[in-house]
Amino acid sequence: MELQSPDREVEYKASVNEEGNVVLKKKSAIKRGSKSRAQGGQFELRARKDLEEKGWTVDKWSNNIDLEGEKLIPAKRKFNPFSKVMTIGTGFPDFIAFQKMDEGRYEIIGVEVKMNGLLSIIEKKKCQWYLENKIFNKIWIARKVKEKNRIRVEYSNVKEILKRIR
Fold first, then answer.
1. Nearest CA to 126 among 115, 114, 110?
2. What Rg, from alpha-carbon coordinates, does the chain have?
3. 115 contact partners, CB below 8 Å, separation of at least 6
4. In the Cβ-directed half-sphere of 12, how many Cα atoms lie within 13 Å?
5. What are phi and psi of 90, to 5 degrees?
6. Over the stretch 11-52, which tens digit does the pLDDT of each residue have?
7. Strands 22-26 and 12-16, how do they pair?
8. Rounded distance, CA 166 to CA 162, Å?
């Protein structure tokens, strides 16, 4: 008696990276990645709407930091060849928000939107650079909090996170 597995769909997709090497990607991982990217974009819009309801004026931040040269640079634009779309606004943090405090004074903050609220080491270094160079007064991390059937946006200050770094 011989065991045969049912014919399955191809599990891997071959693509070529920038160096010209062939890369095999699992189709399930590709599907999961596109779903999480879509959910992240939806949550980013929810966080922006929440800030605007709280009286902040919000715009997309289109700059990034070159940590080696320690300078502010324009963020690179990403091109999607399949949908023929150029993505603008891949900077760090995601948003710049400002609110009028009193006559002639504004509070300016950076807002980075993360579903789980966790920053990578590089992102923490970038936050530290922004605060040291006084580009932003504060940087907030917007994270997703589920309460029963509702999704709520919770903000935490990066200064509290940076205190925990050794």
1. 110
2. 20
3. 36, 39, 40, 43, 143, 144
4. 6
5. -105, 30
6. 878 888 878 888 888 888 878 888 888 888 888 899 999 999
7. antiparallel
8. 9
Contact between 124 and 161 (Cβ < 8 Å): yes
What does DSSP assign to residue 108? Answer: E
Q: CB–CB of 92/129 below 8 Å?
A: no
Report pTM. Answer: 0.75
Residue type, 48: R
Token pair of 94, please?
A: 């995601």
Gap between the Cα atoms of 21 and 14, Å rounded = 10
Buried b (16+ CB within 10 A) or exposed e, 8-32: eeeeeeeeeeeeeeeeeeeeeeeee
Q: Specify the pairing of strand 63-66 against strand 71-74.
A: antiparallel
Q: Which two tokens stand for residue 101?
A: 């405090």
Using a 10 angstrom Cβ sphere, with 0-12 exposed, 13-18 middle and 19 or more buried, the burial of residue 51 is: buried
- Token pair of 115 as six digits: 């579903």
Domains of the chain: 42-163 (3.40.1350)
